[in-house]
């Protein structure tokens, strides 16, 4: 090996007295535990140019300082858990309620967080005037375009990615017979993406779904649609993998499945990660949950074009899981008193390539 001069060797050795004087003159590093930004989830995510997000509920955002403390310290992205859904934004026709959505967008701007928009076209959480309106196809098209124009227009430039179409597929890979599909046919997906792109050309536009993390019939259906849309020049930019898991049951094909979408040139994101446990959770299950958080995060970030990971909530105090899956809970990285669970460390290690 050629000799490379070592600059340290050219320094003259310090006398003991000189060394002592030097030491006395410099501030000693603090020996207290390092709470610097670099060791938070968002610190690790920032360091690799990724998003670490949380779904935010409006109630605790308004009223619970412990909630916002964790949210601001740990996350560089937020998603409205409910506040940007159609029933929240337009509860009666042509009468809008932007308060909660604005609150989150403003909160994010004040705390240097990006916003994922969720969601524009869905079969669920539609206002009753829309769900029960019995509109013709042409009326429904006009209504949908207006919804997209109005919502994306209001937040133009403030939302880095939108879940434009949510949960459009059945488990067998066919398209769900939703209000949109049944009245407008499958063309509603391309139309929604085109309208969204015109309304906010800089937002990354996603199709988002659950049970598509594995290579299975449902993800095959979505893969085929994504390929067709791209071939037709439709502005589809990403796929959101919700990732609502049961502890110990991450699909082994997850990383390869995300990669096949990424290989189409699409972004991939985990958009709603949680890992539910049958209650009461044992310490072995909490440890397995930690591993699951780490593996899920690595499965995304290990794939080219993974934009990041969003967790569907922060704390077990506010989670959709116990209300939906009888006997299950404890799905999130923080416990009900905002203590970090083993899952927090798993998520952190998944974000930190040095862990
Ligand atoms: O977490 C949301 C919960 O508060 C709502 O009651 C529920 C109603 O549909 O929606 C939950 O969020 C869902 C998300 O919008 C789409 N994917 C599944 C999520 C969990 O149900």
From TrEMBL:
Active site: 272 (nucleophile)
Gene3D superfamilies in alphabetical order: Glycosidases
This protein's record includes keyword Transmembrane helix: no
InterPro entries: GH, GH10, GH10_AS, GH10_dom, TAT_signal
Superkingdom of this protein's organism: Bacteria
Reactions mediated catalytically: Endohydrolysis of (1->4)-beta-D-xylosidic linkages in xylans
Keywords of the record: Carbohydrate metabolism, Glycosidase, Hydrolase, Polysaccharide degradation, Signal, Xylan degradation
The enzyme's E.C. designation: 3.2.1.8
Annotated GH10 domain residues: 35-350
Signal peptide span: 1-29
Family, similarity comment: Belongs to the glycosyl hydrolase 10 (cellulase F) family.
PANTHER family referenced in this protein's UniProt entry, alphabetically: BETA-XYLANASE, GLYCOSYL HYDROLASE
Protein name: Beta-xylanase
Lineage of producing organism: Bacteria, Bacillati, Actinomycetota, Actinomycetes, Kitasatosporales
């Amino acid at each position: 090996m050629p000799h490379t001069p070592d600059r340290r060797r050219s320094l003259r050795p310090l006398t003991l007295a000189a060394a002592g004087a030097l030491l006395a003159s410099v501030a000693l590093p603090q020996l207290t535990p390092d709470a610097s930004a670099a060791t938070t989830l968002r610190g690790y995510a920032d360091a690799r140019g990724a998003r670490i997000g949380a779904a935010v509920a409006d109630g605790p955002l308004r009223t619970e300082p412990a909630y916002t403390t964790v949210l601001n310290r740990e996350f560089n992205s937020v998603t409205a858990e409910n506040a940007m859904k159609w029933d929240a934004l337009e509860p009666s026709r042509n009468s809008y309620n932007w308060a909660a959505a604005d609150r989150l967008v403003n909160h994010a701007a004040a705390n240097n967080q990006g916003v994922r928009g969720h969601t524009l076209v869905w079969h669920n959480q539609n206002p009753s005037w829309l769900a029960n309106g019995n509109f013709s196809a042409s009326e429904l098209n006009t209504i949908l375009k207006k919804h997209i124009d109005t919502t994306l227009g209001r937040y133009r430039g403030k939302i880095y990615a939108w879940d434009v179409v949510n949960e459009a597929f059945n488990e067998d890979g066919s398209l769900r017979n939703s209000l949109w599909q049944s009245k407008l046919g499958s063309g509603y997906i391309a139309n929604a993406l085109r309208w969204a792109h015109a309304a906010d050309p800089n937002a990354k536009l996603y199709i988002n779904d659950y049970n598509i993390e594995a290579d299975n019939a449902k993800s095959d259906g979505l893969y085929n649609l994504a390929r067709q849309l791209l071939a037709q020049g439709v502005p589809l930019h990403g796929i959101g993998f919700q990732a609502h898991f049961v502890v110990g049951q991450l699909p082994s094909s997850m990383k390869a499945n995300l990669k096949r979408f990424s290989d189409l040139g699409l972004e991939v994101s985990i958009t709603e990660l949680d890992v539910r446990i049958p209650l009461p959770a044992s310490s072995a299950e909490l440890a397995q949950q930690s591993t699951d958080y780490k593996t899920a995060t690595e499965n995304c970030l290990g794939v080219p074009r993974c934009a990041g990971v969003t967790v569907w909530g922060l704390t077990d105090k506010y989670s959709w899981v116990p209300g939906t899956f009888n006997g299950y809970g404890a799905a999130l990285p923080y416990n009900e008193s905002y203590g970090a669970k083993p899952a927090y460390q798993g998520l952190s290690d998944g974000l930190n390539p040095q862990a």
